[in-house]
Amino acid sequence: MKKLFTIFLFVLLLSVTVNAAANMEITFWTHEDPNRTEIEDRYIAEFEQANPGVTIKRVTSASGKIQELVLTAFAANQGPDIFNMSIEDEYAYIVNERLAAVDFEAAGYPSLQAVYDAYVLGVLDPVTYKGKLYGLPLELTNWCIFINKKVFRDVGLDVEKDYPKTWEEMVEVSDKIAIREGEILKRRGFDFRYPYYLVAMVPMVEQLGGKLISDDGKTAIINDEAWLKFLKFMQEWGPSGRNLGSPTYTNARTLFNKDNNDIAMCTTGLYQEGRIRNENPNFYNSGEWMVVPFPVFKDAVKDVPSAYYGHYYMVNGQKPKENQQMAWKFVAYMLSHPEEYLTKVNIVQPTVELMNSETYKSMPYSDVFTNDMAKAHVVYYGENSAEIQALIREAVESVMLAGISPEDALKTLKRKVQEVLEEG
Amino acid sequence: MSRRTPSYSIERKKSRWGWIFVTPTLIFFLLFSFYPIFNAFYTSLFNKKLLSLKPPDFIGFNNYSYLLKSPDFWNSIRATLVFTLGTFAPLLIFSLIFAIFIMSRKRFQKFFQIAYYSPAVLSSVVAAVIWLLIFDPRGLGNQWLNLIMNTPGIDHKWLANSVMVQMSTMLVYFWKYVGYFTIIFIVGLASIPQSIYEAAKIDGANDWKIFWYITLPLLKPTTILVSIMSMLQCLKTFSTQYLFTQGGAPLAPINVITLNVYNTAIRDHRIGRASAMSIVLFIIMLFLTWLQFKSSRADEISY
């Protein structure tokens, strides 16, 4: 009886083990994007059918929340197999060696060089570390200015001629467009995307000759004069200055899609076109919107548009080797549809083939984005980029909202960013 | 020579059952309260980064000495104390007033209890989101206040001014928790025997004297309970400040210790330093609770 029971247990254990090996679950965490969900759910079904025994579990979270979820999961050594975030948030995972390098064979490439050759020059640099490649881009984005033509007409402006080319013009045009009820803004001309200071605001400082970090990476906040001018500009923009906008108003990008006479301009990427089409097809098809380049200051010493940033798919290095290979195989399968991502989600996967394709060139205003990107640089990324971004935010909001002088805000910013750099 | 009690006495049996009932709670506390506290203290002695797989460097009390020299941390202490003082005192006073008001009603007692208590049922995150909409410059906050004060077009900068944003966080917290503490006071008031009030009335005491010389002294244990609970609740405040800063409010005025702990750990990945901050907060909470107990000299009330 005892012997029989032992045999039974052995068979049971064996069947469980064999079953586990045959069935592989790949967890895939990504940010919410309804347009992507639609096509990626289909890719998952196709991939599962082509790879029996493999299940892909796709979990979405709000784009502002996923950083925290992935971080806490990795801290507990329970990270997902695949995830994607913006490179500023992902870079720490690379330098802390939490990731699996791209398995080019599993991804269907003959060599690692073939992977680099498939993408536009330089776009894989942020995910290359100590000679290894750690990510493949889901999207590469830069921002330009979206304009609602109706609002311009409403105040007697000729949008083709009067659209703001400089930040000084942006102030004047926004002031003309703004409708105020006392101190309360009922309609804004333009407003910034406040949480993303590295993408849009550091380039504004660079236009004035400033820099975030010195070339040798040892000194923070270069050229006080440029930073002061930028901080004074933001102070003037805010409620205690010319009252043109504030981080406390509903974000401009969301209002823009509604076409409710709330806002005339916002800064965002090509993907916004897909969101307008989805949320407000009438506005999308009306031809009442357009895209113009990112402005520069009148006395700019450098023509720097918004920085571009990438969302890269990454694979957890703590998962078993076979999971890593399957994960890269699945990532490559998703990324083998760049044209569908472009036409249905309006996100750009920067492959050489796509960027030269008619599909990309025929996208409304893709030339505006391409021209700006040619002059742009990648967003600042480093192990502490999220912390540095928060410190710039603190400085800008302190001058706009908390009544701190630009000089004091700069002094604090300099001290804190320098401390972050020195602590490493 | 000491005499030993018989091993099967009723007391021993009772105490054994007592231990059996208490053990699950003790295990729960050990696992989910004491272990995290000791673990946080242990972590605070290391230069530990959240994502690093390398063994962290032991740095002794360096994280604590860093905090003592950090203007940011002192600002967090200030923000926490301002918030606690600004919220805890009104919570205590108004919850008592509301409890007395409800108890004095002959009708609609239950309605008022539910009405006051309902915000406490909401999660803090939902409450903060509702108030974020109210505090939008074009939201109901400005509209109501301008209507009441006849000041059309004034932006009261609920989230866009250092002082106002602190007031706004206090207002949200007060709104959310006043009903909860009101209910506790109602329970306290209900436990005072009616015969004492009747005796006082026969002796000719008016309502004010009854409140001052009977209700308030007999409510002392409830008052101590409410004051400690509300103070600890205020010191632990997080979600309102977190969501307000996500909604564009400036960080520094409302950067309470818990928010600083969160940012240091999650945004900056410095879990060692964040642990040191949480230990400091724990010590502050422990000290203030002890101080309250000591200053109130809580005596048992028996009727």
UniProtKB/TrEMBL annotation, chain B:
<keyword id="KW-0812">Transmembrane</keyword>
<feature type="transmembrane region" description="Helical">
    <location>
        <begin position="114"/>
        <end position="134"/>
    </location>
</feature>
<feature type="transmembrane region" description="Helical">
    <location>
        <begin position="274"/>
        <end position="293"/>
    </location>
</feature>
<dbReference type="InterPro" id="IPR000515">
    <property type="entry name" value="MetI-like"/>
</dbReference>
<keyword id="KW-0472">Membrane</keyword>
<dbReference type="InterPro" id="IPR035906">
    <property type="entry name" value="MetI-like_sf"/>
</dbReference>
<feature type="transmembrane region" description="Helical">
    <location>
        <begin position="243"/>
        <end position="262"/>
    </location>
</feature>
<feature type="transmembrane region" description="Helical">
    <location>
        <begin position="210"/>
        <end position="231"/>
    </location>
</feature>
<feature type="transmembrane region" description="Helical">
    <location>
        <begin position="77"/>
        <end position="102"/>
    </location>
</feature>
<dbReference type="GO" id="GO:0055085">
    <property type="term" value="P:transmembrane transport"/>
</dbReference>
<dbReference type="InterPro" id="IPR051393">
    <property type="entry name" value="ABC_transporter_permease"/>
</dbReference>
<comment type="similarity">
    <text>Belongs to the binding-protein-dependent transport system permease family.</text>
</comment>
<protein>
    <submittedName>
        <fullName>ABC transporter permease</fullName>
    </submittedName>
</protein>
<dbReference type="Pfam" id="PF00528">
    <property type="entry name" value="BPD_transp_1"/>
</dbReference>
<feature type="transmembrane region" description="Helical">
    <location>
        <begin position="177"/>
        <end position="198"/>
    </location>
</feature>
<feature type="transmembrane region" description="Helical">
    <location>
        <begin position="20"/>
        <end position="42"/>
    </location>
</feature>
<feature type="domain" description="ABC transmembrane type-1">
    <location>
        <begin position="77"/>
        <end position="292"/>
    </location>
</feature>
<keyword id="KW-1003">Cell membrane</keyword>
<dbReference type="GO" id="GO:0005886">
    <property type="term" value="C:plasma membrane"/>
</dbReference>
<keyword id="KW-0813">Transport</keyword>
<keyword id="KW-1133">Transmembrane helix</keyword>
